[in-house]
Structure formats: C-alpha cells, structure tokens
C-alpha cells in the first residue's frame, strides 16, 4: 500500500516567476531520448501533470497536436498561458487543477509527464488514473533533477547548512512534511506504477555541468517550496547578504560549478494484442 504524505497545496504560491526564470531546463538530449522511446505519432495528445511553468510541456509540444499543462498553483498556469501566447502555441492549454482531481477522458493521451513532482502527489491514485488516461501502449514519464544544495561539493554542503539555518530561523522547517521521502523508500515509485497496471520500462540518466552565479541561486531558492518569497518576506535582503557571504568564498570567476543529474523513469501501458 502507498503511504500518503500530504503536502500543503499552497507551498508554491508566489513562486511562478522565479520558477520560470531560475529552474534549469531539462537537457535537450533527455527530451530527445524521451521522445524517441515514447514514439508519439505526431497527431496525439500530451498531458503534463504538476507542470510548473511548462518545463516539459513546451520542449515536447511540437510532437503533439494538443498539450494540456496542469498545475494546482494558479501562478504557474498563468505563466504557461503567457508563454503559449508568446510563442504562438495555441495548442498548449493550461488547466488549474490538482492532478488528483483532473477530469480527463479515458484513453485520451499518448504521453503523460510529471516533472519533479510525483512524490508530492497521491502516487497510487495518480498512477491509477494516468493508466486509464493513456492510450494502449502509451507512456508515463517521471522526470527528475537534482538540487544544488544536495551535492558533494564544498559550496553545496555550505548551501545546505545555510538553508537549514534560515528555515529554522524563519520557522519554515515544517513546510515540507518530515520524512516525506520515507514512503518512497518503503514503497518505491516503480512498485506503485506496477500496481497501477504499468510495465516499467527503465530509468534513463543524463548529466549536465552548470555554472551558477550567486544571484541565480538566490532566485532558484525563491522558486522552492521551503523558502519562497512569502517565507523570506522582509528578511529577503538579509538572506541574500548571508548567501553572498557564505558562498562568495567558494566561487571561481564568480561562478559555482554543479554537475546536475537529470533522469526520467519510463512506464508503459499494455499495447493491444
């Protein structure tokens, strides 16, 4: 059984602009590999669940005639609509809804993608519903990327300590449910997908070297659920100064180098006999 960990639905309120500007894009090689393995017909439909500002919907859009980008946070879907207008992608439609509550027709999609969000959803429910929303032989891709404060470099360790300190100072430590990842360790995603009726097809990994400036990291942190603008509030300038003081000693040519690991896990519904 899937042990459900509940995340506050308002965690990303006010982060849309920062999310769009400072979240790293999925690598072109990963998008191309996903498209090759999922093999969309060019005439089908794509569903991007918990879409953020469309980090998957937009790079995949040209392979589909209809794209539905769904997120529970209105600020995210506002950005999606503005981007679709700006690039003339009338077939990209934003929907403000929880993934668990989405009203979608059975067998309507060739591909469903979920970027850095499956852990925040009711995994069993969403997997079961996604299995019915896909055409026979359709694919679900769980896409992931690592965070800059979670790596082995000295500056990443320093950043992790700084973030924990500020979370404690601002009373924000409980915004992310304690032990949120324990459920996934006890009941891994691939088992959740298998129970829902998917054939799990494998995990595919891609690494990219990225060079951050400290202001870019400050923006990236504001795109998160644990230190968004609403939490930093009047302390934002002090936080930025602390970030600059702590990380400045680690920079080389005003940059901090990270090896970002991206991956997607592919699952497929049974094809017709």
TrEMBL record:
Residues annotated as domain Methyltransferase: 47-138
Keyword Transferase: yes
Gene3D superfamilies with a match to the protein in the record: Vaccinia Virus protein VP39
GO BP terms, alphabetized: methylation
Record keywords, A-Z: Methyltransferase, Transferase
Example GO molecular function: methyltransferase activity
Pfam families: Methyltransf_25
Top-level taxon of origin: Bacteria
Protein name: SAM-dependent methyltransferase
Origin species: Streptomyces africanus
